[in-house]
TrEMBL record:
Stretches that traverse the bilayer: 28-47, 54-70, 82-102, 114-132, 152-172
A Pfam family: DUF716
Cellular-component GO terms for this entry: membrane
Organism from which the protein derives: Strongylocentrotus purpuratus (Purple sea urchin)
Keyword Transmembrane: yes
PANTHER family (alphabetical): EPIDIDYMAL MEMBRANE PROTEIN E9-RELATED, TRANSMEMBRANE PROTEIN 45B
Localization (cell): Membrane
UniProt entry keywords in alphabetical sequence: Membrane, Transmembrane, Transmembrane helix
Protein family per UniProt: Belongs to the TMEM45 family.
InterPro entries, alphabetized: DUF716, TMEM45
Membrane topology field: Multi-pass membrane protein
Protein name in UniProt: Transmembrane protein 45B
């Protein structure tokens, strides 16, 4: 496909705003990119940057949620509801990321953030399938209240599936460590507040 002008044009020659969706996506990528950049710095050459990473993560989630909240103007009830479920997952990620600013080593908060970040990913796929590529080949009726209610139920399934995935990852990791002869893994705190692997405790059976 050929374009007569660059895709990321903000204002056309007549002074009209252009490519609002693309600019919204770029804004999200910018904040998450900044978060990732600071996270890399904090883990490598600038340890003091680590204290800012959770705040920037919370900011990135906040911007993402803000943009998606206003992304549904003029859409069908079904599409609005699909995006509302996404915004809910983003909001939970924002709350937990913000909580991590003060409770960096709280495992439960971290797991909730990881869970709903995973739910975001699976729900993005679900949203795309419903709106653009339904398996039946027939588009969902965007005005049907039953479709709206069904997507709510499906969202709860995504949360359950995410929990099962995390449980499987944890279980497989624990079994792998046990099979390798380790009963536990211990960490020590570094100067930047992070934790690094200190030692692995040999299994009592070895």
């Amino acid at each position: 496909m050929a374009y007569s002008e660059p895709v990321l044009v903000l204002v056309d020659k007549d002074g009209h705003w252009q490519n609002d969706v693309e600019w919204g996506h770029c804004s999200m990528y910018l904040y998450f990119g900044l978060y990732g950049f600071v996270k890399i710095l904090g883990s490598t050459c600038v340890p003091s940057a680590a204290k800012f990473e959770h705040a920037l993560g919370a900011l990135a989630y906040a911007v993402e949620g803000f943009l998606f909240y206003y992304h549904t103007h003029g859409r069908s009830p079904l599409e609005i509801h699909l995006h509302s479920m996404l915004v809910f997952a983003i909001f939970v990620c924002f709350l937990t990321a913000a909580a991590e600013v003060w409770s960096r080593e709280d495992t439960l908060i971290r797991l909730i953030r990881i869970l709903f970040t995973l739910v975001q990913g699976t729900w993005f796929f679900h949203l795309g399938i419903v709106l653009y590529k339904p398996p039946s080949g027939e588009p969902w009726d965007g005005e049907d209240h039953l479709n709206v209610m069904l997507t709510t139920v499906m969202f709860t399934w995504h949360i359950l599936i995410g929990m099962l995935v995390l449980f499987l990852v944890y279980g497989i990791t624990k079994l792998t460590l046990k099979a390798c002869g380790f009963s536990s893994v211990k960490y020590s705190q570094m100067s930047n507040g992070r934790y690094e692997l200190a030692e692995t405790a040999q299994s009592l059976d070895s």
